[in-house]
């Protein structure tokens, strides 16, 4: 495995940075799940989907970052083939599931803002559970297909990959034809990435149109503030995924693409708790109940996330 950071004298700094982001991502998302599970006012469709998103982020970071930190600490930077395939499956599962989940979340917001009278009738518990099951099933099937297709290939050459096993660098190492793999990657990118991105954009176009009709300027400000935060994450995540996966293997560049991978693999899972939940008053109140921090401000809670697990 090739290092993400090619400067040995900065390995300690890079390790501390990755460790900090890992703790923030895992602890922040874990607190969100606990808050949603144990606080009844948060038992709504929106927070149900946020809990699923938090679980996906924990799955993604736990599958990738521990091995990355091990590589930063030790001179021997290798991974077994079986572990590589397990890492590939887990990462593909989390990334594919998150793409579909973001669309489900956009649909929930669309129903809440644009169809408020039908919201309670449509977004029932059974519907939310069914949507979540579909989301995870699509991600699992897509991940299984890519992993099984990868198992049929033979690898040779330098066998250098980045810190984790991802589809583009593995296909670049294949000694046999990876045409079928590239076709399936392209199909998955069209339907999972671009398709869900278009659906999400369509839902938020309707949401924006409805927000503009709100008479209260304060109401417009709050609604746009919430939507803009979500759209920032969507844009960052989708842009990185489409950039990485829509191209053929021949255009893959280890040096150029590894920084893009940092965006959706490390930064986004660490930012999601802040963007989706820590800015919400109900979640902050719940955190104060879960944690013995009744008089602690939101800033203090953010610092607490940097503490030991």
UniProtKB/TrEMBL annotation:
Q: What is its main location?
A: membrane
GO molecular function terms attached to this record: G protein-coupled receptor activity; olfactory receptor activity
Which InterPro entries does the protein's record reference? GPCR_Rhodpsn, GPCR_Rhodpsn_7TM, Olfact_rcpt, Olfactory_GPCR
Q: What are the GO cellular component annotations? A: plasma membrane
- Residue ranges annotated for the G-protein coupled receptors family 1 profile domain, each copy included: 28-276
Which Pfam families does this UniProt record tie to the protein?
Answer: 7tm_4
Superkingdom classification of source: Eukaryota
Q: List the membrane topology term(s).
A: Multi-pass membrane protein
SUPFAM superfamilies named among the record's database cross-references:
Family A G protein-coupled receptor-like
Bilayer-spanning residue ranges: 12-40, 46-65, 86-107, 119-148, 186-212, 224-246, 258-278
Which UniProt keywords are given for this protein, alphabetically ordered?
Cell membrane, G-protein coupled receptor, Membrane, Olfaction, Receptor, Sensory transduction, Transducer, Transmembrane, Transmembrane helix
Name its cellular compartments: Cell membrane
PROSITE patterns per the record?
G_PROTEIN_RECEP_F1_2 (PS50262)
| Name by which UniProt lists this protein | Olfactory receptor 13G1-like
Q: Which organism is it from?
A: Alligator mississippiensis (American alligator)
